[in-house]
Write a structure and sequence with these properties.
Aldolase, DapA-like, globular, single chain, 8-stranded parallel beta sheet, about 10% strand
């Protein structure tokens, strides 16, 4: 079993695409998966240079899918990626359950479907009562029996504010089957205390930010990339910022390099505000409007796809998104 971390770079937490409301088999309560659109988007991202896909994360509405649908989605994308020549790009399968056994069921299924890694959301139902020692034991119990290496998914926004301390990451990073983390919060000091910790070996435990607006500062403190929602719309742009940092770190940074990195980070931050406000609904809206991929109104209850006030809301974002699209197209 491979126990090395995912390669450094940019990964995309992909949205799950559902059938359009105009589809013959559309059901507003149990909207069917749209695997053809899923594949179209996956290949769009891989051609844009991302290192892999996170399928069934928060952006992917993992909690809205049955285990049967999870497996169908994962296996279809692995098959299509391989067929298109992307066997070397990883699939990281998300889990969002509260108990160890169900998490292991999903991880075993993910391996059977072709995923290389699992991204395990911290169990936050009893966040106010959970101790750091309890969190350590929970992740160790999962890692002990997981058939694939796992990453710790720290997203307080969806786990009742559950906090995982940097010292807890230092302990968990010693487990041979825990190979990294996604930090979906804006706490740069905590990113630093994990990515730069002398107690964590970066060759066996990779730190990825879950926020593209943090990419440049996180890279400077030892982070290995981002698992970023905006990269689902503009993969080449986010990859360009990552690659430019890597190149200049090796050869030495010029004033022009520094200027380009700051400008790219600024433009990414502008557009990431939509992701912060609207989440997966906003990401789907932007993908549909900018590239014609998917139905911006497709989601599962209680989410209702598309902006609630349609054109009025998009008009607030159109200029910055169209501007970044110009950058994206220049990088093709």
């Amino acid at each position: 079993m491979v126990t090395s971390p995912p390669r450094a770079g940019i990964y995309v937490p992909v949205p799950t695409f559902f059938a359009a409301s105009s589809a013959a088999d559309y059901d507003p309560v149990h909207t069917p998966l749209d695997l053809a659109t899923q594949t179209k988007h996956s290949l769009f991202l891989l051609k844009g240079g991302v290192q892999g896909l996170v399928i069934l994360g928060s952006t992917g509405e993992a909690i809205h899918l049955t285990n049967k649908e999870r497996n169908e989605l994962l296996s279809s994308q692995r098959q299509e990626m391989d067929k298109a020549g992307y066997k070397d790009r990883a699939i990281i399968a998300g889990t969002a359950t509260q108990n160890v056994e169900e998490t292991l069921i999903q991880l075993n299924d993910a391996k059977a479907a072709g995923a290389e890694y699992g991204m395990v959301l911290a169990p936050g139902y009893f966040a106010s009562a959970a101790s750091q020692q309890g969190i350590i034991k929970w992740f160790q119990a999962v890692a002990d029996k997981s058939p694939i290496p796992i990453m710790i998914y720290h997203y307080p926004g969806v786990t009742n504010g559950l906090y995982i301390a940097p010292a807890t990451f230092e302990v968990l990073a010693q487990h041979e089957n825990i190979v990294g983390c996604k930090l979906s919060h804006g706490d740069i000091p905590d990113h630093t205390l994990i990515a730069s910790s002398p107690k964590i070996d970066p060759s066996s435990f990779a730190v990825f930010s879950g926020l593209g607006q943090n990419l440049l500062p996180v890279l400077t403190v030892g982070g290995q990339g981002a698992i970023d929602g905006l990269a689902g719309v503009f993969p080449r742009t986010v990859v360009r910022l990552f690659n430019l940092f890597q190149e200049t770190s090796a050869k030495g940074i010029s004033k022009q390099d520094s200027k380009e990195m700051r400008e790219l980070q600024f433009k990414i931050c502008e557009c990431e505000r939509l992701v912060g406000k609207w989440g997966t609904v906003g990401i789907k809206e932007a993908i549909a409007r900018e590239w014609g991929i998917g139905d911006k109104e497709s989601a599962r209850l209680p989410l209702q796809g598309g902006f609630q006030d349609g054109e009025a809301e998009w008009s607030k974002w159109k200029d910055v998104f169209d501007g970044l699209r110009t950058v994206e197209e220049s990088l093709q």
